[in-house]
Write a structure and sequence with these properties.
Helix content is 40%, strand content 16%. By secondary structure, it is of the alpha/beta class. The strands form two sheets. A four-stranded mixed β-sheet has the order 1-2-4-3. Helix 1 (3-18) packs antiparallel against helix 9. The protein starts with a helix and ends in a 7-residue tail after the last helix.
């Protein structure tokens, strides 16, 4: 991963945490940020970068500089770009054999609201009504279990995932303050369960015990928030205590790759749960 990209993205997240905002807890509402032309939603760290809470733009549509030029759009005066990360794969000859290698670069994109005459060209629309989000949440869980995902045992004293038994434990649904809190917790443990060696094979050491502020915990936090936000649900309890924020700040400052890697793995876990590939996303 390019150190320049890491520096740009991580410093943005650190600044938000220092202001008391946890960027992955309310990533977006009413649909993911997307490329205005291709309609392809941004994923992983790019979904966070382009989210309203990080970018400052409520409009979910974005364009590259090339797309702006091709369409003949002009930006309002003194507009700054937003950097997003592109992951690619290439080939090179090593000892006469073709070897694949990964690479990253960052692209400059602009929000649609930065275009001149945005307000008159695209008048505000009435927000679309969400269908029953809880039915969709249940469908996601049922689909995951049908495809061999971990099962949940209810009536437990706390929420957890146990890799040894490949089972999730959850308190009874009625003990949660509200339905969003229940589903946020359920999704959190489901994300953990995707790390089992027979699924995505992440490091789940101590996941059943004290794993606070580990990368796996951030993967589960982000993944749960991504799934909830995709359902249009953002009215969950936001954890932003001073101790919580300081702990994540220390992690990000100590390891610049920590956030980027966690976001990638969280998105991959969400894809696994929903049974989709990157090409379908």
């Amino acid at each position: 991963m390019s150190e320049k990209v890491n520096k740009i993205v991580t410093e943005r997240m650190i600044k938000l945490l220092e202001e008391g905002v946890v960027p992955w807890q309310r990533p977006w509402s009413g649909g993911r940020p997307q490329n205005f032309i291709t309609k392809r939603p941004y994923r992983g760290i790019n979904a966070l970068i382009t989210s309203p809470i990080v970018s400052g733009f409520e409009c979910q549509d974005w364009l590259t500089a090339k797309q702006l030029n091709n369409l003949g759009f002009k930006l309002k005066p003194e507009q700054k770009y937003t950097p997003i990360v592109f992951w690619g794969q290439g080939e090179k000859k090593v000892d006469g054999e073709s070897k694949k290698f990964g690479f990253t670069r960052f692209y400059k994109i602009f929000n649609k609201s930065q275009i001149e005459n945005y307000e008159t060209t695209w008048p505000p629309e009435e927000p679309a009504e969400w269908e029953s989000w809880e039915d969709k949440a249940q469908d996601i869980m049922d689909g995951y279990e049908t495809k061999g995902g971990a099962l949940t045992e209810y009536g437990k004293g706390r929420a957890y995932y146990c890799p040894t038994t490949d089972k999730m434990g959850m308190p009874s649904p009625g003990t949660f303050f509200n339905r969003p809190e229940f589903w946020c917790t359920q999704f959190h443990e489901m994300i953990h369960s995707t790390g089992h060696k027979k699924r995505l094979n992440r490091n789940l050491e101590n996941v059943f015990g004290d794993h606070s502020y580990s990368e796996e915990e951030l993967v589960a936090e982000m993944g749960s928030c991504f799934l909830m936000a995709d359902l249009g649900i953002i009215d969950r309890t936001i954890v932003n205590s001073a101790g919580y924020i300081q702990s994540w700040l220390k992690k990000l400052k100590d390891n610049r790759k920590f956030l980027m890697q966690a976001a990638q793995r969280a998105e991959k876990a969400c894809d696994y749960i929903k049974g989709i590939s990157y090409e379908q996303a």
